[in-house]
Design a protein that fits this description.
It is a single chain. By secondary structure, the protein is of the alpha+beta class. The protein is built from 27 helices and 20 strands. The strands form four sheets. It has a seven-stranded mixed sheet, covered by helices on one side.
């Protein structure tokens, strides 16, 4: 936003590219700078841990850049991490800190002067941080951030609507304010008149993001009273920025001897950048690693079979109940739309199943039935291979530390409210315990069993504290705003959603869960009584021993201000195998846990290396020599539940995952057999689409022109289908291997073919009725061709891919005219894309 997104060039480089060539691109001499499209680019930074690695270049001078806008990439890097205020910044830390500037966020207002305060973290007796990554914010502060966020989104909507020459919707879709919104435009005009009242209160109680050099979560605390007040913990500070909003900035500079001038300040340093709001907690499911650890902790196979039965029942509902199907695929469609909003105006990048379900298509329509069965089989395979079985009384929740220290060691509080005012709080508070696990998990002790505390108990404790004449120091947040008699219960009572974990004891509960913290981490949480009763207690893995300590290399500790471009390139290249190594270790850990046990020496050896690989990506962690021989078999064999055929390199596992894998496969086979039974499958063409042809045929009995037109259309459609199918077979024959490359070629070819035939078969007709008739005849002729045994495959979708918007419009119009209520849920694509324009405008 500071320099304009158009000046950043992202270059993805495969790990197969020779290192010398990468260095040559980055470390270019002055006599041969990198020029692209009339602009000179300089290397800025690298997303080193991604695969493939992404090297970011900055346009310093050239076409479209005014003289006063010219700036070198070195100066931009210094703006992202000012050396004046970070003189001891190493290249390793700089790599992480600049990453903050490139994370996807929504600008949500510039904080006023002296409203942000830094306070110490709560620490245990061993001086370990108990509130790592989580700060507090007042209600007025949260409302300010929310309104600014929404104003920015609305300004982007207006900008997009102006470009498209359309009107802005009257209501801003609040679901847009999510962690995939890319704030790369200008800052929001906080005082603009855009229909958002100053009285609009934030419907959420926490958000993840960054404020200047601070990163993490900010949670509502009503104890901060009136005014915009932000409290940051020491652990949230990642880099020093000259911030006017920071109370202690001037004093800190005086202590360090740094002379601050007005030119150092920048409003971007005081901007709140929101990554995501808390929303309501997502439904939790099991996973392969969760199942392995639960089995190790005492949960029997019968419990998991019940979960698998629930999963298969859910799949059957998707196949048999149109309402359940529509509810599920609507959620998926919205997620897909937000992720791939570029494709919304493209008819061939579409979710046809979603549109069929929205149009209340007859479930016996051949293609619709086929699509539903494909979805059910895909979901079943995913559930079985990834262990994603449903589990009741289970959520995926954000971790929040207890800033009041009212909770005792081993206790937790769950907030399960929603922005619309609904709550499951009373239902949850009936239970005594929860089990919780953060992903990724490596050790048997990563699963915590905590005592659940309800609001009544918390209220009682706070009353007792008040009777004791004063709140003890352990309950203070060490803030200027923390009065001597502020009620700690207000912190819990104001929360909508999240898992609040105690901040007492000798170690943070989040850290016990595979080294987690509170800067936005989520955890799997379950309060099912049967599961909690079955889970046995187990100590958390001690990650403070020598095996878990990695000394930083000399290359990581070199000061960023002293490294050359070549050194920066070499440093980034050291990470290029990080993701590959993580994948190998994860696969090996699955096999080790299955063969030797979760907390066996072999599994712990692999888990330790995987744990370190995540926290210390610069060092490629490798197995110690004394474990290497024992684990050779692990690296070369795998259990059959990983989806591989049983060969010399795999084996049939008798653990829970293996039993469930075979158990669910039988259920899937049974479901598919029923669906494919000719006696039970009564597919038929859609009567609304066929009525267009039947009406035309009736008219053709008395009108030779219409009869001839129908005959011409039928001949034209048959010829097109045959030509398409012939070309398809030729291309498939030339692409002998099935891989990502050939799959990509096929997709592009199919897209071209659909564009071509759309233009020739449908758009060439005059008038809406003629185009609908052509679409209907193409539909009928494609079905006739599909009856042939040789014409079985994805090309049966030919008519739907070419004309599905018109076919669905026919179905919707007919359905609406029969009921006489509502509006058809499926529009013509040229009209519908205008509705999606606002979402596209927000995410670019």
């Amino acid at each position: 936003r500071k320099f304009g997104s158009h000046r950043f060039l992202h270059l993805n480089i495969s790990k197969k590219v020779w290192k010398g060539d990468v260095i040559d691109i980055i470390d270019r001499h002055k006599d041969r700078p990198l020029w692209v499209c009339g602009r000179r680019y300089g290397f800025l930074w690298c997303k080193a841990t991604k695969s493939p690695q992404c090297y970011v270049f900055f346009a310093e001078v050239g076409i479209g850049i005014e003289k006063d806008e010219e700036i070198t990439s070195d100066k931009v890097r210094e703006w992202c991490a000012p050396p004046k205020f970070n003189c001891d910044l190493s290249i390793g830390k700089e790599q992480k800190r600049i990453k903050l500037s490139f994370s996807k966020t929504t600008p949500s207002g510039t904080l006023p002067k002296n409203c942000l305060e830094v306070v110490p973290d709560i620490r245990c007796s061993k001086d370990l941080v108990m509130t790592d990554g989580c700060g507090l914010i007042s209600q007025d502060g949260l409302d300010f951030v929310w309104r600014s966020c929404m104003k920015y989104i609305q300004s982007r909507e207006a900008e997009y609507a102006e470009k498209q020459n359309t009107k802005v919707p009257s209501q801003c879709d609040k679901t847009l304010c999510d962690n995939d919104i890319d704030g790369d435009g200008d800052g929001c005009e906080e005082n603009s008149d855009n229909g958002l009242s100053e009285n609009n209160s934030c419907p959420y109680t926490s958000f993840q993001g960054r404020i200047g050099g601070f990163k993490g979560m900010w949670v509502l605390d009503d104890r901060l009273d009136d005014g915009i007040k932000v409290v940051c913990r020491d652990s949230q500070k990642k880099i020093n920025f000259p911030m006017r909003s920071l109370m202690s900035f001037s004093d800190d500079c005086k202590e360090t001897g740094v002379d601050v001038v007005d030119a150092d300040y920048d409003s971007f340093y005081d901007t709140v950048d929101v990554c995501s709001w808390d929303k309501h907690s997502k439904e939790g499911r099991l996973s392969r690693r969760i199942i392995q650890i639960l089995e190790y902790r005492g949960v029997d196979v019968d419990f998991f079979r019940k979960c698998a039965d629930d999963g298969t029942k859910w799949l059957c509902r998707l196949h048999e109940d149109s309402n359940s199907l529509l509810e599920y695929i609507s959620k998926r469609h919205m997620e897909m739309t937000k992720r791939h909003s570029n494709n919304n105006s493209d008819i061939f990048h579409d979710n046809i199943l979603f549109r069929m379900a929205s149009a209340k298509m007859d479930i016996n329509e051949p293609i619709y039935a086929q699509k539903i069965l494909q979805l059910v089989k895909k979901e079943a395979d995913t559930m079985r291979e990834k262990g994603r079985y449903p589990l009741r009384k289970c959520k995926q929740m954000r971790l929040i530390p207890d800033h009041t220290q009212i909770l005792k060691e081993g206790e937790a509080f769950i907030a399960v409210g929603y922005p619309n005012g609904k709550t499951d709080q009373k239902n949850v508070e009936k239970y005594d315990y929860i089990v919780t696990l953060r992903s990724p998990a490596y050790f048997g002790g990563d699963l915590l069993k905590l005592k659940l505390v309800n609001k009544r108990t918390l209220r009682s404790r706070c009353v007792d504290l008040e009777k004791s004449k004063g709140v003890p120091s352990v309950n203070k947040i060490c803030s200027l705003y923390d009065g001597p008699y502020n009620d700690p219960f207000r912190f819990f009572d104001g929360l909508h959603t999240g898992l609040v974990i105690n901040s007492r004891g000798e170690r943070s509960a989040a850290d016990m869960m595979s080294g987690g913290d509170y800067d936005g981490d989520e955890a799997w949480v379950c309060w099912d009584k049967q599961l909690c009763r079955l889970v046995q207690d187990h100590p958390a893995q001690d990650t403070s021993t020598n095996e878990f300590i990695v000394k930083k290399s000399h290359h990581e500790k070199v000061l960023a201000s002293r490294v050359s471009l070549k050194q920066r390139a070499e440093f980034a290249l050291h990470y290029r195998y990080h993701q590959t190594q993580l994948g190998k270790l994860s696969t090996a850990l699955d096999s080790a846990m299955d063969q030797f046990g979760v907390d066996s020496p072999e599994s712990i050896a692999v888990a330790t290396q995987a744990f370190l690989q995540v926290d210390h990506p610069y060092k490629l962690c490798e197995m110690k020599q004394d474990h290497y021989c024992e684990l050779m078999e692990v690296f070369h064999t795998s259990p059959h539940w990983r989806g591989e055929q049983v060969t010399c390199r795999s084996y049939v596992s008798e653990k829970v995952l293996g039993v469930l894998y075979d158990y669910v496969q039988g259920k899937i086979d049974s479901l598919v057999t029923v669906c494919n039974d000719p006696e039970k499958r009564n597919t038929r063409l859609n009567p609304h689409i066929m009525s267009i042809i039947n009406t035309a045929r009736q008219k053709g009995l008395n009108d030779f022109v219409i009869e001839r037109k129908l005959s011409q259309l039928q001949t034209k459609m048959k010829s097109a289908i045959n030509e398409f199918y012939s070309e398809y077979k030729k291309l498939r024959a030339t692409l002998k291997d099935d891989n990502e490359y050939t799959e990509g070629i096929m997709k592009e070819w199919m897209k071209y073919q659909h564009y071509k035939w759309r233009k020739e078969l449908i758009d060439s007709e005059d008038g809406e009725d003629a185009k609908n008739l052509a679409s209907a005849i193409l539909y009928e002729e494609t079905w006739r061709k599909s009856i042939e045994s040789s014409f079985q495959g994805e090309y049966k979708m030919f008519a739907w891919n070419v004309a599905h918007d018109r076919l669905l419009r026919v179905v919707c119009d007919a359905a609406q005219s029969s009921t006489g209520t509502g509006v058809a849920p499926t529009l013509l694509r040229e009209h519908e894309k205008l509705l999606y324009g606002c979402m596209r405008g927000c995410s670019h």
